[in-house]
Amino acid sequence: MRSVTVYCSSSGALEPHFSEGARALGHAIAEKGLTLVYGGGSIGLMGECARACKERGGRVIGIITQKLMSLEQGWTGCDELVVVDTMQARRRQLMDRGDGYVILPGGLGTYEEFFEVLVARQLGDHHKPIAIVNHDRYYDPLVAMIEHGIEHRFVRPAIRDVLGVVDDGAAALASLLAHEPKPHDPARFLPMHAGTDSAAHIRGGRGA
């Protein structure tokens, strides 16, 4: 593994401990000799993680849209700052240029990026590891929603095998580095392969 894509918030209105968590991840990425790939902003958790990585001698690649250059204050301290035209192009590069993905606390944009990466893994479009940093239990509702989907057979249980849920950045990197890619088996991951006989049995039981 050579690079890690980090998805996280650009908000500057967060409690300080979230920033501390982002900085700890940035330090850890640099100390592992990895390149940080992120959304290119200088504010919020994005800026904290990027600056922390650079402080410890790490390489930082930012991917940002022209529209967000002023809103997220594109960080000129990046070793490479790529400015693209659309959010779709930004997400594509963030996904392609990382060998693994870490999800720090974030808002709607982070949710979108996380689910795009997760669905691509479910489909076998990539075999890269994914880790959610559940800092201060921020992502408990997200994890519960995925489990709710599994319970009701909209999501296959195998998705748990490709998604690490950890408490901090160091554990996230350990999870990524320990990952061993396996051949993709659509029958394990895709909902249309769920046991229809079992579902029919359940329906029949309810009607009995």
Give an account of the 3D structure.
- With 208 residues, the protein is α/β, with parallel strands linked by helices.
- The protein has helices spanning 16-31, 44-55, 68-71, 87-97, 108-123, 140-151, 169-178, 186-189, 196-207, and strands at residues 3-7, 35-38, 59-65, 80-84, 101-103, 130-133, 163-166.
- Helix 1 runs parallel beside helix 2.
- Helix content is 47%, strand content 15%.
- Mean pLDDT is 91; it is low at 196-208.
- The chain is built from nine helices and seven strands.
- Helix 1 links the parallel strand 1 and strand 2.
- It has one domain: Rossmann fold (3-Layer(aba) Sandwich), CATH 3.40.50.450.
- A seven-stranded parallel beta sheet has the order 4-3-2-1-5-6-7, sandwiched between helices.
What is the number of E strands? 7
Uncertain segments are: 196-208
CATH topology, by name, is Rossmann fold
CATH architecture: 3-Layer(aba) Sandwich
The coarse silhouette is globular
Q: How would you state the average pLDDT, rounded?
A: 91
Instruction: Give the structural class.
Output: alpha/beta
CATH C-level label? Alpha Beta
Sheet-strand content, in percent, reads 15-25%
Largest sheet, in brief, is:
7 strands, parallel
- Give the N-terminus to C-terminus distance in angstroms: 54 Å
Number of domain modules? 1
Q: Number of helical runs?
A: 9
User: Radius of gyration, rounded?
Assistant: 18 Å
Summarize the SSE layout with pairings.
Blueprint: E1 3-7, H1 16-31, E2 35-38, H2 44-55, E3 59-65, H3 68-71, E4 80-84, H4 87-97, E5 101-103, H5 108-123, E6 130-133, H6 140-151, E7 163-166, H7 169-178, H8 186-189, H9 196-207
Parallel strand pairs: 1-2, 1-5, 2-3, 3-4, 5-6, 6-7
Helix pairs in contact: 1-2
